[in-house]
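It would be a great kindness if you could assist me with a short task in structural biology. Thank you for your consideration; the sequence and its tokens are set out here.
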Amino acid sequence: MLSLKTALERQGRVWWVAPSFPQSSAAWRELKALAAQIPGKVIREDARRIVLPGDGEITVKSADAPDALRGEGLDLVVVDEAAYCPADVWTDALRPALSDRQGGALLISTPNGFDWFYDCFQRGQEVRDDWQSWQFPTSDNPLIPADEIDAARESVPERTFQQEYMAQFIPDGAGVFRNVRAAAIATPQQRAIEGHQYQIGVDWGRENDATCFAVWDCTLRELVYLDRFTGVEYAQQRGRLLALVERFQPIVVTAEQNSIGGPIIEALQRDGLRVRPFVTTQASKMAIVDALALSFERGDIRIIPDPVLLGELAAFGAERLQSGLLRYSARTGHDDTVMALAIVHHAATVTRTNSAVGAFAR
């Protein structure tokens, strides 16, 4: 109703976004049914768009193609099951699209841990004019019988019931990384502090992934800077990394060697950069992720409170393979910032414990 009101009365441009195409279908059916009552509307099934008198329009989209969510100015965006959309869909695509028209957003979701959606919910709990938030358990829905909720309580795990039926944000213990929020207290740095030593970790992007540079302050044992970007030519990526090296003067840069990483590393080494390659395999990824998770468990790591990083850490999970080994990956979205952090954390740990790495010291 809010979408129709915005499009009809304000001649506004509205998007309804769901995590995937199938999940968006229910909203599309309901919007079409409501719009059918409006004379003069045009329903474009192929584009999932409803054009209303006065040129207001509603388009239903999915978050599984983030690049398709960039660029347009919006008066309203409704994000359905927002917690199951990657953080960068909101931070990099949808939130900027609201700026031109001073648009608003309605984020609807079942909780999914302490992720970016949780951050938005917390803003709405503060005394401020630009955010409001609400929390309703399933029992507030008059269309669902109380005995159905009681039956669910007896048949699902308590954690699931609290999240799915009570709308409670459950701590991030179900993922690989715990105590992440407590660690997100590092102060961001824009350049080197005199007397501090730094390292940089690099996770190269591929077709649909972002490239990420993570800067680690070895003196404070903190992640102090992240640079994450997509759609940049490899020559420009090299230039961007060289500029970052100029600012922080790291003792070494550890960069992923897989795929396109090899040629870029060779080019950087020709540029005079001290680059150490890291080969990502299932075993090496498990080792560096386990080490990073242990640091979070012990509380001996601090990171900057970057919303994309926090979202990716919360969404990072483990799958048990038939071999019995674990395979780590993002349950939703990407893991570019996680891998850049894991690489630089591993490199910094090796530097502390292996004197042979002293050859890289200034």
